[in-house]
Design a protein that fits this description.
- The complex is a heterodimer.
- By secondary structure, chain A is an alpha+beta fold.
- Chain A folds into two domains: 119 residues; 112 residues, Glutaredoxin, CATH 3.40.30.10.
- Chain A has nine helices and four strands.
- In chain B, strands 3-2-1-4-7-6-8-5 form an eight-stranded mixed beta sheet, sandwiched between helices.
- In chain B, helix 3 links the parallel strand 2 and strand 3.
- In chain B, helix 6 crosses helix 11 and helix 10 packs across helix 12.
- Classes of the chains: A alpha+beta, B alpha/beta.
């Protein structure tokens, strides 16, 4: 009798409202986490957008200056690579956003297109400057895919990131081959790319296809000898540079 | 979303739900502070000290019992040497002349329950308790427990608040946080009428309990857990005296810890099977509807989350090593370029992990307040750095042993 009485008491003590309240609070915590994660991601997008705008103005300014004067302060330019640091920083930010939001996110795709255009413009401007100032820069145009059809692209990206850390003067421009951007398609067709990836175009020579180890890629760019290494100026090696967007 | 991450979200949701539930229970009924009031009556108490190869610690255990603030003629100590092969019996015999102490020697039966039942048969007193021979009681612990029995005549067993005795090594410090966490849990389970274990160190029972439900059973070497399950199945009340402090020695090596916890975890699985009818059964109140289902889910979640993290860590490390080998890039330290807000991981998953850790930290702090324990930074660090890596070891081993019905014996 006592046993049944206690069990009835226990059932009565089951406070379903508390079970429900705990569920609502837990769901609210999940909702809050979702909201803040989304807010921070949109802050990141805004930050990238602002950086792209700033780089775009800088490039336009350099182009205008170039056209106005027909000449530039060559020693200054050869010592301070134009916009390269900003472009690299932008690339690594885009890479983070791509990881967080997915490579097919409309906002990310839009920003990547803008980034690719800025890269192309910087590349063209730098070629003009090199011609005018008799510089011998080392350019690598790197085409990759992150659509799951290029298993070696990530590793090729690692090699280029490392090389850029070793040779700060090396200018790497990376492009998502699958990006639906007419300027990029024109660049790819001008350079006669056949669609095999990863693909490298080194100093406007014929494209090189397939994964290359660090040694192989260094051998493909003999001009690297003309570039200062990261240990030359600081005395200590700068092992890794900002990862460029090439995965 | 990848299916593996979905599993982690489910684990986090369940963990968070349980923590929220307990925090609501805490806000509903906060533990009362310790008072100086004394019991109205001092019932006779017998404390059984079962010991197997505890020559090193037995003396301290018995001396702590002799120092208890309780009328000497009302407190008896029954030392049961359970077939020790070391000097335990000699350590016990030094107290044989004390009128409060009785010393017995018996053959070992392969598990602790035999020594406890032997002690029950060779002791007297309205209340009877047990103290493992590697634990030490605070002088007023018994008074606090007797007050609990007095406050509620329906209470059949009272569990104390357990603390780690002088933790020094990293693994002991980790357990000191875990035990503090346990103090909060035990009190909240008490609020819910759903205490799931009546631990060996200084849990006290009304003697009539054994007449009603029978003696201790082997119960897969977890007789303390089985007794709690059996009491719930009979609708009997277990409470917690959070002001009764007991200090216990804990394993100081990973091997010993995993052995001990494997026994506990397996005991939970086996007893759950034996008492499966209580699961999700409203007749057993919060014990059946929340504590048992959550315990089993936490078991599975621990194995899943541990396996998930281990798999990803190993995949990442092997992937990086393979990349370096294939690319021929020399090993190097990554640059610190990314140390700015933009590169902080602020995914929903990370924020939820932070929320769960924050809740866990809150419960540890509350446990510390309940038992007036102050934990060092090193203790917190040891807990958060180690627990997630060692706990899956005993969970997996316990699951494996249960599935294969392996007999490992008492072991600790």
């Amino acid at each position: 009798m006592g046993h049944r009485h206690v069990q009835r008491e226990r059932m009565a003590n089951l406070n379903w409202q508390k079970y429900l309240l705990a569920l609502i609070i837990t769901a609210a915590i999940f909702g809050t986490a979702f909201y803040f994660a989304a807010r921070i991601d949109s802050q990141r997008i805004a930050d990238i957008r602002a950086t792209e705008k700033s780089i775009s103005i800088d490039i336009l300014s350099s182009e205008t200056q170039f056209e106005l004067l027909g000449n530039l302060d060559c020693p200054t330019i050869s010592q301070n690579p134009v916009l390269q640091t900003e472009l690299n920083s932008l690339a690594s930010r885009l890479s983070v956003s791509e990881q967080n939001l997915g490579s097919d996110n409309a906002e990310v795709v839009y920003l990547k297109k803008q980034y690719s255009l800025l890269e192309i413009k910087d590349y063209l401007l730098m070629q003009q400057i090199a011609q005018k100032c008799h510089l011998k820069p080392v350019f690598v145009l790197y085409f990759y895919s992150n659509a799951g059809d290029c298993a070696d692209c990530a590793r090729a990206g690692d090699v280029l990131t490392y090389m850029r850390g070793q040779y700060p003067g090396l200018r790497v421009y990376s492009f998502d081959y699958n990006l639906d951007l007419s300027a990029l398609k024109t660049l790819a067709s001008l350079r006669t790319l056949n669609g095999n990836l990863p693909a490298f175009i080194i100093n406007n020579r014929a494209p090189v296809y397939g994964f290359k180890t660090l040694d192989q890629l260094e051998a493909l760019i003999p001009e690297l000898k003309t570039l200062a290494t990261s240990t030359d100026s600081t005395g200590s090696p700068q092992a890794v540079a900002t990862p460029i967007l090439y995965r | 979303m990848d299916i593996g991450v979905l599993g982690i979200y489910i684990c986090l949701f369940i963990g968070l739900y349980f923590e929220v539930f307990l925090l609501i229970s805490f806000l509903e009924k906060r533990p009362a502070p310790k008072t100086q009031t004394l019991p109205m009556r001092y019932p006779g108490v017998a404390i059984i000290v079962p010991c197997w190869n505890k020559a090193q610690t037995l003396e301290g255990t018995v001396r702590s019992l002799l120092a208890i603030e309780y009328p000497k003629d009302k407190l008896s100590i029954v030392i049961v040497d359970d077939g020790s092969t070391d000097d335990t019996l000699r350590a016990a015999m030094q107290f044989a002349q004390n009128p409060q102490v009785k010393v017995f020697h018996k053959e070992n039966e392969g598990s602790k329950y035999g020594a406890l039942n032997f002690g029950l048969a060779h002791s007297a007193g309205e209340l009877v308790g047990c103290l493992d021979a590697d634990s030490f009681v605070a002088p007023d612990a018994l008074l606090e427990i007797v007050k609990q029995f007095e406050a509620n005549p329906e209470t059949m067993a009272v569990a104390p608040a357990l603390k780690v005795n002088h933790p020094k090594k990293m693994l002991e410090l980790m357990q000191s946080v875990e035990y503090t966490f346990g103090i909060f849990y035990k009190k909240m389970f008490d609020n819910l009428g759903a205490i799931s274990v009546i631990p060996g160190p200084f849990s006290i029972y009304r003697r009539e309990l054994f007449e009603r439900v029978g003696p201790f059973r082997k119960a897969h070497h977890t007789e303390d857990m089985e007794m709690a399950f059996r009491m719930h199945s009979h609708g009997l009340t277990i409470t917690n005296a959070h002001t009764a402090l007991v200090y216990t020695n804990v394993p100081s090596t990973v091997h010993a810890l995993v052995r001990q916890r494997t026994r506990w975890s397996r005991g939970f699985l086996e007893n759950s099977r034996d008492y499966s009818y209580m699961y999700l059964n409203q007749k057993y109140g919060n014990f059946g509807m929340l504590i048992l289902p959550f315990g089993l889910t936490a078991f599975a979640a621990g194995i899943y989350a541990g396996g998930y993290v281990l798999f990803h860590l190993l995949s990442w490390a092997l992937g990086r090593a393979l990349d370096l080998w294939i690319t021929r890039i020399p090993p190097h330290v990554p640059s610190l370029w990314h140390v700015e807000w933009f590169y902080l991981n602020t995914s929903m998953l990370t924020l939820l992990v932070v929320a769960v850790l924050g809740m866990t930290l809150t419960t540890i702090i509350l446990g510390g307040k309940i038992a007036q324990t102050r934990l060092s930074f090193k203790s917190y660090f040891s807990y958060f750095a180690l627990f997630g890596f060692v706990a899956p070891l005993w969970l997996v081993r316990a699951a494996w042993d249960t599935a294969t019905s392996s007999e490992r014996g008492w072991l600790t």
